[in-house]
Write a structure and sequence with these properties.
Length: about 325
């Protein structure tokens, strides 16, 4: 009885937040044509307090998408163009000598904001990538011995261009693992392309209005932790992740395709993202469908394929599909 009352209370709160998130999604969609799934995943990552690695060819409105989301919640936004000559201090900041006061003062870098677009993150050298990824993980930055907290919410959307690898620095697997989601963005449909032309070639100015504030997002992030995930859901998640490491235990004929399975971070993000998906659907409890809805985005960059699998042009998405098909749903 107590559990039922608690679920009712969680459902009631989740329904209220779901309505606000629907309005937020609709507002972003006023500016962004199509990409509904990507916008939804952006919101899921935001309320799960995670970050996104986004892969797509140039010109697919990646910058506009996160800028519009920032506008919709009156959040600070900065775009950092990653280049080979960038230094860690260009992102985190540094200390400079002030002649007037004869002392050093901290000059904070662009990372001290709510929303950071790390454009073409694989163009910067490893030291710079590490500076950003440390901030993502710790939610704080150390500048020459002094530690500074980052703003709340703090959300990083890092982009990679999949068609160009010359002069780039591949993100190490340990650093890729720090991203909650890896999203793949494709080309728009023909009718969406026409709508894009109509919207952006005729001088019409479309701008998102403020729907909610940053403190409401932080409130949602805190509530997301409280959404109920049954023990059976956690066992289901554990089996999915374990199947990436020991596929033979589950009767999966993919052993020769996986070099390394998903890390424990995969389990954590699967649960948190499933909770956020439940919240967006107005529920205060997680269903197996919530886990399935976000499984590809959480796992695709955490399953390292063997050379043989790559030679056979297998993808991690194909392997995830086989795992979800085989693991028994509670």
């Amino acid at each position: 009885m107590v559990m039922n009352e608690e679920i009712k209370r969680l459902n009631s709160k989740a329904e209220k937040y779901a309505k606000e998130l629907d309005k937020l999604q609709a507002e972003v969609s006023k500016v962004i044509v199509g990409q509904e799934d990507s916008i939804k995943k952006l919101l899921i990552a935001l309320i799960s307090n995670g970050h996104i690695l986004l892969e797509g060819v140039p010109g697919l409105a990646k910058t506009l998408m996160i800028k519009t989301l920032a506008d919709s919640i009156s959040a600070g936004f900065v775009r950092i163009q990653f280049t080979p000559d960038l230094l860690p201090a260009d992102i985190t900041g540094t200390k400079i000598y002030d002649h007037k006061t004869t002392s050093f003062k901290t000059l904070k870098g662009p990372i001290f904001t709510n929303f950071v677009l790390a454009d073409e993150i694989n163009r910067a050298p490893p030291k710079v990538q590490s500076a950003l990824l440390e901030a993502m993980q710790e939610k704080q930055v150390s500048i020459q011995g002094d530690t500074h907290e980052l703003a709340k919410p703090f959300f990083v959307l890092a982009t990679q261009n999949p068609i160009e690898s010359e002069g780039t620095y591949k993100l190490p697997e340990a650093q890729v693992d720090r991203f909650m989601f890896k999203l793949l963005i494709g080309y728009p449909e023909k009718d969406e392309e026409i709508e894009i032309m109509n919207r952006f070639t005729e001088g019409a100015s479309v701008k998102a209005s403020k729907m909610i504030n940053t403190s409401k997002i932080v409130e949602m992030q805190e509530f997301n932790q409280k959404i109920y995930a049954d023990q059976k859901i956690k066992e289901y998640v554990a089996e999915i992740v374990d199947a990436t490491r020991h596929p033979e235990k589950y009767g999966l004929d993919i052993n020769g395709h996986i070099e390394y399975g998903a890390s424990p971070r995969a389990s954590l993000w699967l649960v948190l993202a499933a909770k956020a998906h439940a919240m967006m659907n107005g529920r205060g409890y997680v269903k197996p469908e919530d886990v399935k809805a976000i499984a590809y985005d959480v796992l695709r960059h955490r399953i390292i394929l063997t050379y043989e699998a790559e030679a056979e042009q297998k993808t991690s998405d194909e392997i995830i599909a086989k795992i979800l098909e085989k693991i028994k749903v509670p």
